Amino acid sequence: MEGTFGPNSDRQEQIAGALRRPEGGSCHIMGVLNITPDSFHEQSRMTTTDEAIQAGLAMWQNGAVWLDVGGESTRPGAALVTATEEQQRVIPVIEGLRKVNSNGFISVDTRRASVARAAIKAGADLINDVSGLRDPAMVDVVLEAGCGVCIMHMQGTPATMQNAPSYTECAEEVSQQLLETARALKSAGHPIELIALDPGIGFGKNLDHNIELLQHPELMRGIEGFAVLWGVSRKSMIGAITGKENPSDRLAGTLGVAAVAHYEGVDLLRVHDVTEHADLLKMLDVLA
Q1: How far apart are CA 11 and CA 1, in angstroms?
Q2: How far apart are alpha carbons 267 and 81 in whole angstroms?
Q3: pLDDT tens per residue across span 224-258
Q4: Which three-class secondary structure state does DSSP give residue 203?
């Protein structure tokens, strides 16, 4: 499917299906495709367009429903890149993936409305905004495009978010903020079936906050039943719990989180290791 800008009812229906786990099935997998030199998991960094396209195709073949294409690292303390540089990284990859797979689902991981707009035109289906639609211009892009959107919670900015994160009741506060944003989008006319919510593990949270959020995914669904996405793959909370300092050593812990997601009814898992997660979820699907 070539990139378009503006609502497409047939594609919207397909996106809605890809945002929710099938009845009786397990989580959909979203593969992480970083076109960055400084993402926290070194093995996930792609340095060329061709390398990223080939890695994305392999993820689709190995079980990913979504590819999440990002051109800016948002790890704690990450350096800011310009919108022009970010766009130059992600757009050729999205265009290349779309040329070889007309129907695969592509997400763009960006905080910038200009990058999001260009990505939708290039063929992306969903905007994954780690800043939670703080920029009104991003809301305009979502509404005009009629695309999927993942609203993530982040306290502060990547440069400051881990300085001193503070909440009174973390799970309640994060869920309410996400639901307020999602409901405002719904009130503006956006279909709730095209909205997913992400608690933002590690984005302005300490270990206790992260654990609390993962123990209460039901709070984020609201009465509307919004889709829920977890992005915990190889993150520092896993290192803190397991004692594994290097992200390269955190696959087993990450798979443990995926098993919890399966049992908790989480819809989407954003992961670096697609094959391993696909195998795990297939086994749980049959045996659980």
Answers
A1: 9
A2: 31
A3: 999 999 999 999 999 999 999 999 999 999 999 99
A4: coil
Q: Domain limits of the chain?
A: 9-287
235 given a catalytic annotation: yes
Pairing of strands 105-109, 227-230: unpaired
- How many CA atoms, within 13 angstroms, populate the side-chain half-sphere of residue 77? 3
Let me know: does 167 contact 27? Beta carbons within 8 Å.
no
Which of 21, 112, 250, 270 is catalytic? The answer is: 270
Neighbours of 134 (CB within 10 A): 13
User: What residue has token string 């999001």?
Assistant: 116
Q: Encode pLDDT of 26-76 as tens digits.
A: 999 999 999 987 555 556 677 889 999 999 999 999 999 999 999 987 766
Q: Are 114 and 60 in contact (CB under 8 A)?
A: no
Choices 3.40.640.10, 3.20.20.20, 3.40.50.720, 3.40.190.170: CATH for 9-287: 3.20.20.20
Alpha-carbon distance of 246 to 72, in angstroms, equals 21
Please name the residues in contact with 96: beta carbons below 8 A apart, sequence gap of 6 or more.
49, 50, 52, 53
- Out of 235, 244, 250, 282, which one is annotated catalytic? 235
Contacts of 247 by beta carbon, 8 Å cutoff, 6+ apart: 40, 41, 42, 234, 235, 239
Measuring CA to CA, which residue among 97, 6, 187 is closest to residue 107?
Answer: 97
Q: Is 270 a catalytic residue?
A: yes
Buried b (16+ CB within 10 A) or exposed e, 27-60: bbbbbbbbbbeebbbeebbbeebeebbebbbebb
Alpha helices in 3-134 (DSSP H): 9-18, 49-61, 83-100, 113-122
Nearest CA to 270 out of 135, 152, 191 is that of 152
The answer to whether residues 196 and 267 touch, using CB atoms and an 8 Å cutoff, is yes
| Residue 259 CB-half CA count within 13 A | 12
